[in-house]
């Protein structure tokens, strides 16, 4: 059916108007898109360059150099300052306008990416690096006073016989346990083996204790709460930041993962502990194997052997 002539003229005019308006609108949006691309592309490229620099610096520190403590801060400067500065400078130099904004956006983006990677490396990944030993049903408490095997017995002056949890040529970590009442309060002593002098002593409400000595530091945990002590002086280490993955006594050999315990008990015997001391000392992710006691049992961290005490 043919349209009336007036309506046809109206539609024709509308079509011409649409074609007339389409060109400048497309032209304006194309020009705006070009401006956006011109502004964002240098920023994106600079962020990629800066992030790659930070990632490569971090990989060099971790893999070829094996995370030496004295080199942490120089490499941290490369990761957290060098990468953002490269990104910011490159973004500002390549941006046709808003150079200050390009510098801030690029630098802050790379700094944020570096912080996320630091958090994943030090706080997330270690939680998947665990070793636990399942405690048998016989590890259920004391019926009488502890009688550790000769290799585990250590005579403390004025105290009596304790259980040697960890030790080296200079230092011993010894626990004495009150077996008369659950959850068996314990006292842990750090002892200078040359003169049998007690350097440090701590009391705990239970006997779930693990310890090791590494690089002059006593690492000790009462279940999930950790302590770092100077093995030579017995002074507590002063740290402004400590990140660890230790899970203590739990109902699973992978406490980071959800799941039912089914009545089992596991004692973790390894830990990845990073510490930043106030004196500038850094210990970056040492993987530590620890001996421990829980209830009436001693757990050898290296062999997984469990003996009653």
Descriptive report:
With 309 residues, the chain is α+β, with helices and mostly antiparallel strands. Helix content is 35%, strand content 29%. It is built from three helices and 18 strands. Strands 9-8-7-16-17-18 form a six-stranded antiparallel beta sheet, with no helix packed on it. The termini are far apart. α1 packs antiparallel against α2 (72-94), α1 (5-62) crosses α3 (99-124) and α2 (72-94) packs antiparallel against α3 (99-124). β13 (270-277) and β14 (282-283) form a beta hairpin. It folds into two domains: 5-126, no CATH class; 132-308, no CATH class. The longest helix is centred in the first third of the chain and has 58 residues, at 5-62.
Please describe the topology of this protein.
Blueprint: H1 5-62, H2 72-94, H3 99-124, E1 132-134, E2 153-156, E3 160-167, E4 171-177, E5 186-192, E6 197-204, E7 209-214, E8 217-222, E9 225-230, E10 239-244, E11 249-250, E12 266-268, E13 270-277, E14 282-283, E15 287-289, E16 291-294, E17 297-299, E18 306-308
Antiparallel strand pairs: 1-12, 2-3, 3-4, 4-5, 5-6, 7-8, 7-16, 8-9, 10-13, 11-12, 13-14, 13-15, 16-17, 17-18
Helix pairs in contact: 1-2, 1-3, 2-3
The average pLDDT score comes to 86
What about the largest sheet? 6 strands, antiparallel
What is the helix tally? Answer: 3
Quantity of strands, as a count: 18
Percent in strands: 25-35%
Biggest sheet: strands side by side, in what order? 9-8-7-16-17-18
**Low-pLDDT windows of residues:** 1-38
| Terminal-residue CA separation | 104 Å
Binned, the helix content reads 25-40%
- Rough shape? elongated
The number of domains is 2
Q: Radius of gyration from the CA trace? A: 32 Å
Structural category? alpha+beta
Series of secondary-structure elements, N-terminal to C-terminal: HHHEEEEEEEEEEEEEEEEEE
